[in-house]
Amino acid sequence: MAATGISTEHNSVANLFESLNYGPAPEADNVAKAWLEDHGRDFGHFIAGKWYKPSDERKKYETKSPSTGEVLTATIQGNSEDVDLAVKAARKAFQSWSTLSPHVRARHLYSIARHVQKHQRLVSVIESMDNGKPIRETRDADIPLVVRHFYHHAGWAQLMETEMRGWKPIGVVGAIVPWNFPLMLLTWKICPALAMGNTVVLKPATYTRLTALLLAEICSEAGLPPGVFNVVTGNGAFGGQLAAHPDVDKVAFTGSTEVGQVLRRSTAGTGKKLSLELGGKSPVVVFDTADLDSTVEGIVDAVWFNQGQVCSAGSRLLVHESVQEKLVNKLKERLTHFRVGDSLDKTIDLGAIVDESQRKTIADYVDSARQEGAEVYQASISIPCRGCFYPPTLITGVQTVSRVVVEEIFGPVLVVLPFRTAKEAISLANNTVYGLAGSVWTENISLAMEVAINIKAGAVWINSHNVFDAAAGFGGYKQSGYGRDGGKEGLYEYVRPTWEDRARLDAITDDVIKTFGSTLPPRPAVSDSSTSDVDTPSVDRTYKLYYGGAQKRPDGQYSRPISNPQGKVVGIVGESNRKDVRNAVEAAHKAAPGWGKRAAHNRAQIVYYMAENLEVRRDEISKRISSMTGKDLEQSYKEVDDSIQRLFHWGAYCDKYGGTVQVRHIYNCKRSCPDEYPLLGFISLFAPAVIRGNAVVVVPSEKYPLVALDFYQVFDTSDLPGGVVNILTGDRDHIVKYLAEHQDIQAMWYFGTGQGSKFVEYTSAENLKRTWVNYGTNRNWSDPEQGQGEEFLYHSIQVKNIWIPMGDIFAN
Amino acid sequence: MAARNPGIEYDETWIQNVYINLPAVKRRAETLGTRRTVKKQWQAAWLLRAVSCIDLTTLAGDDTPANVSRLCYKARNPIRSDLIKAVGMQDKGKLCLTTGAVCVYPSRIQDCAKALKACNGTKIPIASVATGFPAGQTPLKTRLEEIRQAVEDGAREIDIVINRTMALTGDWKGVYNEVRLMREACGEAHLKTILATGELGSMVNVYKASMVCMMAGADFIKTSTGKEGVNATLPVGLVMVRAIREYYQRTNYKVGFKPAGGIRTAKDACTWLSLMKEELGDDWTKPNLFRFGASSLLGDIERQIFHYVTGRYAAAHELPMA
Fold first, then answer.
1. pLDDT 10s digits, B164-188
2. Suppose B101 and one of A254, B55, B123, B248 were both cysteines; which one would form an S-S bond, judging by CB atoms 3.0 to 4.6 Å apart?
3. How much is the CA Rg of chain A, to the nearest whole Å?
4. What band does A703 get if pLDDT is binned at 50, 70 and 90?
5. Smallest Cβ distance to B199: which of A347, A443, A812?
6. Which CATH entry fits the domain spanning A283-479: 3.30.780.10, 3.40.309.10, 3.40.50.12780, 3.60.15.10?
7. Does A444 touch chain B if contact means CB atoms closer than 8 Å?
8. Most confident option among A222-236, A493-507, A669-683
9. CATH 1.10.760.10 for the A536-801 domain, yes or no
10. Residue in B24, B48, B197 nearest the CB of A291
11. Residue A326 contacts B where some CB pair is shorter than 8 Å
12. ipTM confidence score
């Protein structure tokens, strides 16, 4: 119990009968301590199924219990040799693990689930000691979710051949996880990775290494083959070394947005897959039709779960102005009942902050609010004098400009802002660079659904917050990252199409970043073929740009001649600059909401109509392809026919998978590579994005853009709303540069050069737009497997999960 | 001690715009018992507090002076005297530990009075159910008369059932008027209104019934008769105590709460006490504002106290049955 110096008399049954005070209820730590002793309180890495301590004198890191300050054990600070050793072990294990039958992998995952369950109490205690979080949470939330994840993914392993047909494992996954849910979040990475046949090298966070090491030991006990799951410990730079290792095929990261950006830049252009689950500043939106008493408890779950150190913490309370005072008063009263204390005490609400540096960050934020003149409320409850604690905090009198409202605090701090209407609530909810989660509180189901759908976040809970399950993918939009952990949607982060091999490029160099896309528009040129031909010149064919449903003159008033293979100019196209990019993106944004709201059937009809209209112009467009590219006419006809078929393919998908909630994205498909398929490539890229409700800006083949421009007449005659597909022509790299740098584009597909791919990935880090690039490699667009595979759908959406706990019947 | 709740004029607006989200209520209910626990002497003290809040109850067709008398003696001596001595609760003078009340059918009140007198337990109030318990499907006139008779026979607390027909058909004013009359019929006796929540259909109705009874002057609101399909569950309790809090904030009157039916274990008792402490505060953890309607709960608590004192688990036959 806390060192309060209370006399025995005071704690007599008779006195307690009068006071009805709570007393200490410590969870026993004897088994946990014995486990630490078993290892001599000195841990190495766990590589290839064995403990590994390098022979030389490595630096040690002492891990502490934040609740007590007590040193728990020494761990090792690894270096690049250790990374190399672990990655080699994982690579070796991959050869056999990836070729095991799915059923055998399922058995392994099932066995791990069982073994973790057997050691559930030990794991819970270690996690609580190491992190400072309440034993109640590790016991009731973290570890049950860990077990659940293994069981769930044992299922996916079993089902891989049927459910993930056409996909194969990636190779070695480098996983880097944070300290807030040390074991749970690493499980979110390794479960899908192992289920899909990959092997893993994991780096736990510096502060919290113990449960990762314990899990490695448990996996070994469960019979997991050596090298399939390896744990190496070290500092942040060491994590960077793991991510940068050339033989790591995928980096899976959960942590801060800043580090996520660093990883995006350092892996740009290397052909590694990357998924990022980053920060958040999630809104809790409370309407006057909410059950306010239950909302108060929901807010406790939202922002005071795990000391507020939760990426999906509901840290911004947006409340209907008419009930603001009532709700705030209820919250203040609720906070007087909070118990803060030793993480192993079973009767506390709030444990310790993970480290003194984090505690100071939180305190600085709250001080900044005080200096701004905000009202900071902290109930007068007892806080232990020893250990690293921060009281639950409620801040009112702040606005959208306040630092505590804008930035992620990652602590037990809630800010409150009022709103007037549902529309304003949505605007406030989305007025953030993050998009990880949110919750909506109202008993009006229509309102709840509308607001939930309009909050741009990967998980939205109705009348609840911070509910997790292995079957529901978790992840963000905007600067909260991309990729999903959990559910079928999470599996795609750990597979690649069976036909595709990983591109291996070197990391990006500075000169590419500086010089990419800085080109000058063309000047007049006298070509040999332009003078000698005929007496009567043909009518000049000058295409404009196409955005917002209309032809637009390029802002720079520069044009570019397009020649056929014989060097004859067959048309003139506009030369786009950054202002044209800006305008096209604006047009796309304008169109996106309405397009996304259209019934799927209506979107399908429009895509089929495009196919119909293309069929009408089959002869003309085939000839155009032929004259432009020099292909023979028969091949050109085939390309048009393939294109019609592809429109049917995506039209067909329009209204399928209706059960998956999707969030509309502004996608910008940049295509250039398929010069050999100027029409089919164009259609293959815009169609899957558009059918899923996105609006796109497309840059057609630089060499043969004319058929794409011809196609805007097809758009216009097919009732496609203006702004859904926008076309920019000109210098490919130049346009790509400004698209990649645009902060209001959510995703970018790039099919071009290796250098361009690197640039796109590198530059995307700034606003963390999701990217899909080809690293300069070609695909066969006429092959359905490569030109219309499931990966197009995967890249066209990010799954959003909306939770609606239901039920109103409790008795007769 | 604070003044009795005199009730207020019926105000329809207090039961309009009531929003209850059952899944969220259930979540709070489920986590109450995981967020709080008491061990060692704290646990012993809490359990003894729970004993002091029990309305030790027998409500059966075959009740006779024999078992009613045994119940009264047990209410007077709820925990074996050597165990009470061992935990240092023997010298509490007038605070000598008894249950909160004994609770019986009206026809057994006189048996109680006799038995309590015999065992020097006259301080223990006799609570009587009334008003056509448990269904309440008898004419208002006889229901009111039943109350008057019970008070005359020596009941100091009256547990009435509300009119579910009126509640389910939305006649809240009708419910109010009846309870108001029942309160008048009680006189000095305290009025506990049983909502029979298991028959009210929705948590919104539970909340409205709670509010209407308090407006009509209930001293306690009580979950159930013990005869409905669903009795005292934590979610129902949460909705009711939140209504009590709201009523207190609006009127400054403290109304008590009595969960009844289905509370059998010592652990349940601690969870309920936590619920009261967390949602309403310490004032609502004492017998003047909190009661358990229970018959078998006491036995389990006595076993736990035995264990606290001896470190061993008791055999049932080592403890005096009620």
1. 999 999 999 999 999 999 999 999 9
2. B55
3. 29
4. confident
5. A812
6. 3.40.309.10
7. no
8. A222-236
9. no
10. B24
11. no
12. 0.96
